[in-house]
Specification:
eleven-stranded mixed beta sheet, six-stranded mixed beta sheet, 26 strands, 25% strand, binds ligand UAG, binds adenosine-5'-triphosphate, binds 2,6-diaminopimelic acid, binds magnesium ion
Length: 489
C-alpha cells in the first residue's frame, strides 16, 4: 500500500533542496513525463536518446510539484516548483522510490552475468518454495510466483515499477525474492534501493556492446551489484570458471562481502563429476569440503553451473545447506531454456533454447551434443537494433559447435532482416543455409533430422513474438515445432 509522503522523508542526504518546502506532500514519482499526475516528483534525467529536461514544462502542466535534476543540468524552473539537485539523480530517485513504496520482501537476492540470470533466479525461487517460503522471482519472464507468471517488458523494470512491484508482493505475503539484475538495469540504477541479503555473478561474455562502450564498461556495470548495491559484509556467490570470475571475487572481497566461490573442480561449491542419464544428470560435488550427490533433473552442463550458483545464493540468504542441496532434485528449467519439445517421425529430437549471444550458442550446442548419436542442427538468428558485433560471432559459434547451420530471423526490429542475416552468415561460413522466414527455417531444420539427430532452435526461448519492421507478430518456436510435428514432420 502506498500513501503520500513528506518530501523530506524521501530524499537521501546527497539531494539538495534548491527551492521550495521540504514538508510538501508527495503523491507519486515519475521518470517519464507521460506518467506524471498531480503532486508527483518528476525526475528529468538524461537517457540514451533524449533528455528528460525537455519534458519538464509538460510535467509541470500535468501537476508535478517537484523536479529532480542532476547537478549542472541547465534548466530554469518556474516559481513555486520545488527544485531538487543531486550528483547522481538517477540513484537518488531510485532510493526515493524505495522509501516511497516500502516495505520490500524480507529476504531478497539478485543475480547478474551475461548468461544464466533467468535460470538462476528461477532455481532460487523454487528452492525458497521447497523450503516452505512464500517466494517470487522477477526478471526476463516477468514476475513469477508459483507456476504463474505476469509478463513484463524489461528484465529489470525501471525503478518506480520495480519498487512498486516489490511492495505489492511484500503486501501480498511474499517473503523471499530472487531477482535478475541486467547490466542496463544496474547501469541505470533501476535496482538501487533494493535491500539485498546476497548477490551472485555467473559469467561475462560478448553482449550489449551497442550500449556499453567496452567490455570493461560492461564489467563495471555488473560490478555495481556488489558495489554499491549489496550491503558491505553480505553474502556473495561467484562462479569462477569464466575469465572475469576471479576479478569479480577479488573485488567482492575487497568490498567486505562473504564470498562463496563455485566452479568446476574449484571453490567452496566444487563440481567434481557430472554423469548424464537421459535428460537428467547426477552431479558429484563438495560443499565446504563435504561430499554431496545431487540428482539434477535437467540436461546441460551450464544448468549444473546455474544450479550450483542458485544453491550458493539460497545458502548465503540464510537457508539450511542440506535442505538446499536436497531441493535441487526438484528443479524445473525456466521456460525455453534447453527445453525438449518433441521427436520427429524419423526419430530426431527438437529443443528450444534462449541462446542469443555467442557464448550461449556455444554452451547450448555443447550441452546438446551428448544427446545426439548423429548430427546437431541449429536454427539461429541475431536480433536487430542490438549489438552488431556479436552477429558474426554467433554465426561462428553455430558452425563451430553445430554440424548444420540454418540462419534465420530473430526480431529484426527496425533493421533490414537480410542485412542482419548476412552479418551472421559472414561468421557461419559457406556451408550455412539462409532461410529468412523463421517458420520455414524450423521446418527445414526438422526435415534434416534422421534417427538420433538433434535440432536446436536458438534465440527466442520463451518469447511469443517476432518483431519485423517495428511490428510484433505472434510467433513461438515452441508452438511452431509442435505444429510441424503434429502435421507429420
Ligand atoms: C537503452 C535503454 O535501456 N533505455 C531504457 C531507458 O530509457 P532512456 O532513459 O534511455 O530513454 P530516452 O528515450 O533517452 O528518454 C530520456 C528520458 O526522458 C524521459 N521522457 C521521454 C519522453 C517523454 O515524452 N517524456 C519523458 O519524460 C524518459 O522517461 C527518460 O527518463 O529507461 C527506460 C525506463 O527505465 C527504459 O524503458 C528504456 O528501455 C528500453 C525500452 C529498452 O529496450 N531497454 C533494453 C535494451 C533493456 O533495458 N534491456 C535489459 C536486459 C537486456 C539483457 O540482459 O538481455 C533489461 O533489463 O530488460
Ligand atoms: N551458466 C551459463 N553459462 C553459459 N551459458 C548459459 C548459462 N546459463 C544459460 N546459458 C545460455 O543462455 C541462455 C539464456 O539463459 P538465461 O535466460 O538463464 O540467461 P539470462 O542471463 O537471463 O539471459 P538474458 O540476459 O537474455 O535474459 C540459455 O538458453 C543458454 O543458452
Ligand atoms: N533482452 C535481450 C533479449 C534478446 C532476445 C533475442 N530473441 C533477440 O531479439 O535478440 C535483448 O533485448 O537484447
Ligand atoms: Mg534473463
Amino acid at each position: 500500500m502506498t500513501v503520500a509522503h513528506s518530501l523530506s522523508d524521501l530524499i537521501d542526504p546527497t539531494v539538495r533542496l534548491v527551492s521550495g518546502n521540504p514538508d510538501q506532500s508527495i503523491k507519486g514519482l515519475a521518470l517519464d513525463s507521460r506518467k506524471v499526475q498531480p503532486g508527483f516528483v518528476f525526475a528529468a534525467l538524461g537517457g540514451a536518446v533524449r533528455h528528460g529536461k525537455d519534458f519538464v514544462d509538460q510535467a509541470i502542466i500535468d501537476g508535478a510539484t517537484t523536479i529532480l535534476l542532476d547537478d549542472g543540468v541547465d534548466v530554469a524552473l518556474p516559481d513555486g516548483v520545488i527544485e531538487l539537485r543531486a550528483p547522481d539523480a538517477r540513484r537518488s530517485f531510485a532510493l526515493m522510490a524505495a522509501r516511497f513504496f516500502a516495505p520490500q520482501p524480507k529476504v531478497m537476492v539478485a543475480v547478474t552475468g551475461t548468461s544464466g540470470k533467468t535460470s538462476v533466479a528461477a532455481f532460487v525461487r523454487q528452492i525458497f518454495q521447497a523450503l516452505g517460503h512464500e517466494a517470487a522471482a522477477m526478471g526476463t519472464l516477468g514476475i513469477t510466483r508459483g507456476d504463474g507468471a505476469e509478463a513484463g517488458a524489461l528484465t529489470t523494470p525501471d525503478s518506480v515499477s520495480l519498487h512498486q512491484a516489490l511492495t505489492a508482493l511484500a503486501d501480498d505475503g511474499v517473503t523471499h525474492m530472487a531477482m535478475e539484475a541486467s547490466s542496463h538495469g544496474l547501469e541505470q540504477r533501476r535496482l538501487d534501493g533494493v535491500v539485498l541479503k546476497a548477490a551472485a555473478f555467473t559469467n561475462l561474455g560478448r553482449d550489449h556492446l551497442d550500449y556499453h562502450p567496452t567490455m570493461e564498461d560492461y564489467f563495471q556495470a555488473k560490478l555495481r551489484l556488489f558495489d554499491p548495491l549489496l550491503p558491505e559484509g553480505a553474502g556473495a556467490v561467484v562462479w569462477m570458471d569464466g575469465s572475469y570470475g576471479e576479478r569479480m571475487a577479488d573485488l567482492a572481497r575487497q568490498r567486505g562481502h562473504q564470498v562463496l566461490l563455485a566452479g568446476m573442480g574449484q571453490g567452496d561449491i566444487a563440481v567434481e563429476t557430472v554423469k548424464p542419464s537421459g535428460y537428467a544428470q547426477t552431479v558429484g560435488c563438495t560443499y565446504l569440503g563435504e561430499n554431496r550427490t545431487v540428482e539434477l533433473p535437467l540436461p546441460g552442463l551450464f544448468q549444473v553451473a546455474n544450479a550450483m550458483v542458485a544453491a550458493g545464493l539460497a545458502i548465503q540468504a540464510g537457508c539450511d545447506a542440506d535442505a538446499v542441496f536436497d531441493a535441487l532434485a526438484g528443479l524445473k528449467g525456466a521456460r525455453g531454456r534447453l527445453e525438449y519439445i518433441g521427436t520427429t517421425k524419423r526419430g530426431g529430437k527438437a529443443f528450444v533454447d534462449y541462446a542469443h549471444k555467442p557464448g550461449a550458442v556455444e554452451e547450448a550446442l555443447k550441452a546438446l551434443r551428448p544427446f545426439s548419436n548423429g548430427k546437431v542442427v541449429i536454427v539461429v538468428g541475431a536480433g536487430g537494433d542490438r549489438d552488431k558485433g556479436k552477429r558474426p560471432m554467433m554465426g561462428e559459434a553455430a558452425s563451430r559447435y553445430g554440424d548444420a547451420v540454418i540462419i534465420t530471423d530473430d526480431n529484426p526490429r527496425t533493421e533490414d532482416p537480410a542485412t542482419i542475416r548476412q552479418a551472421v552468415m559472414a561468421g557461419a561460413g559457406d556451408d550455412a543455409m539462409e532461410i529468412g522466414d523463421r517458420h520455414d527455417a524450423i521446418a527445414a531444420g526438422l526435415a534434416m533430422l534422421e534417427e538420433g539427430d538433434i535440432l536446436l532452435v536458438a534465440g527466442k526461448g520463451h518469447e511469443t513474438g517476432q518483431e519485423i519492421h517495428g511490428v510484433k507478430h505472434p510467433f513461438s518456436d515452441h508452438d511452431v515445432i509442435r505444429e510441424l510435428l503434429d502435421e507429420g514432420a
